[in-house]
Structures are given as structure tokens and as C-alpha cells.
């Protein structure tokens, strides 16, 4: 037997119209704050749960959002998903999460499935090997809401929310320089997405500003499409660096997985950090203090990126703007200094 409380029940108990109850629960400006609070308190006390399906049918929406990320194993992605969930739940939207596993083909399959399933819009952090955005563009140009987050591209005109990758890499490189490191290598990914190019440009600009010549031989790219290939590329890169006549005294790494695995490989290969080589990289791992040594990191506001991206998508779905002015929003990163970049002096 279903004993759930309905709008009619709340209206009867409070001696108010069903319309007033509905508007109060939807935070309408037409209802006084006092009445809203009265209704909200009663609804919570009696465990009122709105019928999402009925509400969706009435509005012509499913009240669901599709989310495509590279991998659910990624700590940074998990933090962004928490932000997306926070914003979506607050607006009574359900999220359906799928992972591309860094494959453009699987990414397209995810998008097709979500679209066919009737989601109201899609949030996507593109796969590293995505070079063709035509399918996504055709959906977006037909009026279907799409928002990019974390990994951004100029190939599609929509809202985009990410971190200030240029500044993050710039600040990390300057931190190393100020701590006495002058021969700084950069380990990046082999993607054309903005995360890679902006971080590389930030690194280069910091070297230039401190009159340190950029050495192309200190830049290495890793294949990010397969975990085994990534590890083999990383190991080859470290061995390459250490065999150079003028080998690097520090490394800036560009992604969560590259950073943590680079630290593990350096330890495995017997190098002392930071005595033999210092390390700082982009990662939001909660274990940075527990690593040996404690790892200096470029921390990104992952939760906030997800939260803001979801809010932007919901605003498109609900057509709050007649002619949306698309924004690209870059949130600031922060440098968290630990033992792996201890000053040389």
C-alpha cells in the first residue's frame, strides 16, 4: 500500500490551495517566505516526495541529465561528479553517468545512448583521443543542450567550465624555479584538447619569464588511451630523462594519473625525491600527504567545476535565457607545496 503524502494532502492539512503548495515547493517568487517555510517544514516532516515522472511529463522533460566522463576510476572525475550531483539534485534532476574510457568511439556510443534515452541535456568531459566534435555539434545546433567541462575545445560553441590550466602550470613551474630547480622537464599527454596545450604553454611562459631556455628534449608525451601503454610510456620517459647528458632536476606532470604513477615509478627505479629529481603535478588525490615523499600538487577546484557546469546546463534546459550568451569559465587552481619539491638551498 502506498501511503505517500500528496500535494492535496499538504494543502488540506495547511488549509492552503494546491497551487500555493506547488509554488512554495518550487520556490516561486509569488509566495511569501513565511508560507514557503511552513510548506517546506510540513513536507519534510511528512516525507513528501514529488512524482518526478509526472512532473517531467507535465513539463515535457525527463528531468534527467547525461554525464560522460573519461573514467569513473579517476579521483578528479569523482570529485567533479560530486559537484554535478549537488547542483542537479538541488534542482530535482537525476544524473545518468557513463564513461568513455578515453575512446572517441565509446564516447559517441555513450552520447547516442543518452540521447535516445531521453535525457534533457548532456555534460561531457571529452576523451583524450576525441578530435571530431561534429556529432556533438549537430546535436547542439539542433537545440539540444550540451555543456563541456574540464576538457575544453574550440570546436563547439556552448558553455564551458574548467580550470585555469595555463596558470596552474605556470605557477607550478615558477615554484620549482624559485626553489632552485633550473632544468625542468614536462610530462604531458598526447591529446589536442586544451588541458594539454594550456599546461604546456604555462610551463613555457614561466621558463621564458625567468630567462630559462625552453628545451624541446625535456618535453615528453604519454599515450593516455590505455593504462598499460601509459605506464610503459612513463617508464620509458623517466629512463630517457635520466640518460640525458644534462638531465632534468625536476619534473612537472600534467594529469592525475601521470603524476601519481610517475612518483611510484621514480621510487620503484630507486631515485631519491627531491634529491635526485623533484616532482610536482596536477592531481587532486587525497593521498598526497601519505606518499613517499609527500607530493607537491597543482590542485583543481573539481567539485566547483562540476557544480557550475551542471548549473549552466540546467539553465540551458530551462531556457532561462532567450538567446544564451555562451561563457567559458576558468576557475583558479592552487599550488599545494609538500616535500617532493623541497628547496635546493
Low-confidence stretches: none
What is the CATH topology of the largest domain?
A: Rossmann fold
Largest sheet: 6 strands, parallel
Helix fraction by DSSP (H/I, runs of at least 4)? 40-55%
Name the descriptors.
3 domains; 12 strands; 345 residues; Rossmann fold; alpha/beta
Commentary on this structure:
- The structure is a single chain.
- This protein has a six-stranded parallel β-sheet with strand order 2-1-3-4-5-11, with helices on both faces. Strands 7-6-8-9-10-12 form a six-stranded mixed β-sheet, with helices on both faces.
- It is of the alpha/beta class and 345 residues long.
- The longest helix has 17 residues, at 227-243.
- Helix content is 43%, strand content 16%.
- It folds into three domains: 7-50, no CATH class; 62-163 and 302-331, 3-Layer(aba) Sandwich (Rossmann fold); 165-300 and 334-341, Response regulator (Rossmann fold).
- The chain is built from twelve helices and twelve strands.
